[in-house]
Amino acid sequence: MDLTDYRGLVLPEHTRLTPQRLALLDLIVEREGSFTAVELFQEARRRRPELGLATVYRTVDLLRQTGSVRPLAGDTRPAYVRCEPGHHHHLICLACGAVEETELCGAPSPAVLRRRYGFRAETHELDVYGTCADCA
Amino acid sequence: MDLTDYRGLVLPEHTRLTPQRLALLDLIVEREGSFTAVELFQEARRRRPELGLATVYRTVDLLRQTGSVRPLAGDTRPAYVRCEPGHHHHLICLACGAVEETELCGAPSPAVLRRRYGFRAETHELDVYGTCADCA
DNA sequence: TGCGAGATTGAGAATCATTATCATCTGTAC
DNA sequence: GTACAGATGATAATGATTCTCAATCTCGCA
After folding, report:
1. Same structural domain for residues B71 and B109?
2. What's the CA gap between B17 and B15, in Å, rounded?
């Protein structure tokens, strides 16, 4: 799959960079921590009042396809985070919602899982919840 | 918090064991793999046709409070899994949906996260996706 | 055994998140 | 410029979950 790049966000092939999309991508790049579709929608509307909610979902979906954005597992609201390319996990602050990435990972190795359970691991998700340095 | 126990499922204090709840708890105990609220509702209705969907959500919620059931992070349908007490993670088969528990875990140690990011880890969620022995 | 406080119930309405639809418009390769 | 595939916004539709409320039931205590 050929990929388009905009400020570090990766989009699938044949994705057009429309003004609506650029506004959303800018917001995502400038933002820290997690965001919901509706939050993004409301902020983007301040810049482009004609923008529709469906476009937000469509754009987030494109970013999810390439891994530039990932849904967060947490219990409460359905939120997303921006992701750098490559394997990493998230440190999510329960107090302020900030999200930090870390390359630290110790998920059980595929070899061990295979030997022990006959399970062929493909991917995994690991999120650590706690309190960030600023809130501590 | 005082706890009530039924076939290994733990419920909060003052939880009454009504026939509706017992039917739901039985289904959860007997079931393997993950389930959605609606699936549980439909199966339980075969045994007790008068049972309401709200009761399913209420019961699942009680089990979530004690950790006997946990929502699954996966992208598709919103599903839950039964959990044994204690720290463990899940191996989720992408082919058949079966869920296996494993005590294997190598999440980054709280000490390292503290030193490196100033982050105070409290909990973490780790789910491994792949193919189970039966489907391989 | 019987009582009563308080927990629980089902049905349906209400809310919230997401996806589908469709006629119209526009970015981009030529 | 032109064509056309991809993109758009409004709105309806769907799906998941929570709320509401009057009626009912459970369980500890007498």
Report:
1. no
2. 7
* A7 and A60 inside one domain: yes
**pLDDT at position B24:** 95
Residues 32-91 of B with CB under 7 A from strand D: 36-38, 53-54, 57, 61, 77-78
**pLDDT tens digits, residue range B58-97?**
999 999 888 888 887 655 667 888 877 666 788 888 777 7
Report CB contact under 8 Å: B129, A121.
yes
Is the pLDDT score of A85 beyond 90? no
pTM over 0.90: no
CA distance A90 to A78: 16
The whole domain housing B110 covers 89-130
Nearest to A81 by CA among A39, A130, A127, A35: A35
Chain A, nearest residue to B101 by Cα: A117
Question: What letter does residue A87 receive in the DSSP assignment?
Answer: S
